[in-house]
Design goal:
alpha/beta; 8 helices; DUF6710; five-stranded mixed beta sheet
Length: 237
C-alpha cells in the first residue's frame, strides 16, 4: 500500500511576481546568446496564442463589441504608437521559422481553410502567389508577425507549419517600450506607474491575453540587448 505524501505548502505567488520571474528567466536565455532557443520560445508562445484564437474564433468576434478585435490584438504591442513608426517593406519569411499570430475571426472560413489548404490536402499554402490578399506586420524588436488580412489561410499555414508569407509593414515598438510596461495584469506608465487608458485595448488597459503582455516585456529585453551589443535573434535579410 502506497502512503500519500503530504505536499509541502508553498508560498503563493502573484501573477505580477510570476511575470517578473518569467522575464528574468527569458533575459538569461538572451544573455546566454541562445538565439535559436529565443526564437523557439517566442514561436511556441505565438502558437499558443494562435491556438486560443482558433478555438475561441466565434467568441472573440462576437463578444468584444466595445473594441475592434483585430486592433486589440495589434494594439497589445503598439498601444498608442504613432503611425509615423510604420514602415513599408517586402520581406519573405518561412512560416516554419517565424512566430506568427493571425487574427482569425470567422469560424466558417477558419474551418474551410483547414479543410482546403495544406500539403496534406494536396493544396499547399502559397503565401507568395497570394501576397496581394495578405497583410502582415513585423513587430520589432520582437521578431513576431501579426496578420490582419488573409487571416484564415495564414492560420492554416501556421497549423500545418508550411509555406512562406510576404511581410509588407515593419513597426519598431521601441518608442512605446520607453513609455509603458506590462505589470502582469495591465499596461502602466513607466514614469507615473498609472494604468493606461488607450482605445482598442481590452478594458482600455489590458493585453488581449496574458501572453501578449509577456511578449511585450520580452520585446523590452530584446531591445535592451540590441541597444547594448547589437543582439538580434532573427534574420530578415
Amino acid at each position: 500500500m502506497f502512503l500519500k505524501k503530504q505536499k509541502k505548502k508553498q508560498q503563493e505567488v502573484t501573477i505580477e511576481e510570476n511575470t517578473q520571474i518569467f522575464i528574468e528567466d527569458f533575459k538569461k536565455l538572451v544573455n546566454e546568446g541562445k538565439k535559436e532557443s529565443v526564437r523557439s520560445v517566442i514561436k511556441f508562445m505565438a502558437n499558443s496564442i494562435q491556438s486560443e484564437l482558433l478555438t475561441k474564433c466565434k467568441y472573440n468576434d462576437r463578444n468584444y463589441p466595445e473594441i475592434d478585435y483585430m486592433w486589440a490584438i495589434l494594439n497589445s504591442f503598439l498601444l498608442d504608437l504613432s503611425f509615423d513608426f510604420w514602415r513599408k517593406c517586402n520581406i519573405r519569411l518561412k512560416v516554419q521559422n517565424t512566430p506568427i499570430i493571425s487574427s482569425v475571426w470567422n469560424h466558417s472560413r477558419m474551418i474551410n481553410g483547414l479543410i482546403g489548404l495544406g500539403e496534406i490536402n494536396k493544396n499547399p499554402f502559397n503565401g507568395i502567389a497570394f501576397a496581394y490578399n495578405i497583410h502582415a506586420v513585423l513587430i520589432e524588436p520582437l521578431g513576431l508577425v501579426v496578420v490582419d488580412n488573409g487571416n484564415h489561410s495564414v492560420n492554416a499555414a501556421i497549423v500545418y507549419d508550411e509555406g512562406e508569407i510576404i511581410v509588407n509593414t515593419v513597426i519598431d515598438i521601441s518608442e512605446v517600450l520607453e513609455r509603458y510596461r506590462f505589470d502582469g495584469k495591465k499596461y502602466v506608465s513607466v514614469e507615473t506607474n498609472k494604468i493606461v487608458n488607450i482605445e482598442n485595448l481590452k478594458n482600455n488597459s489590458e493585453p488581449f491575453t496574458y501572453t501578449f503582455g509577456l511578449l511585450f516585456e520580452m520585446a523590452r529585453v530584446l531591445k535592451n540587448a540590441k541597444d547594448e551589443n547589437g543582439y538580434v535573434y532573427y534574420d530578415v535579410n
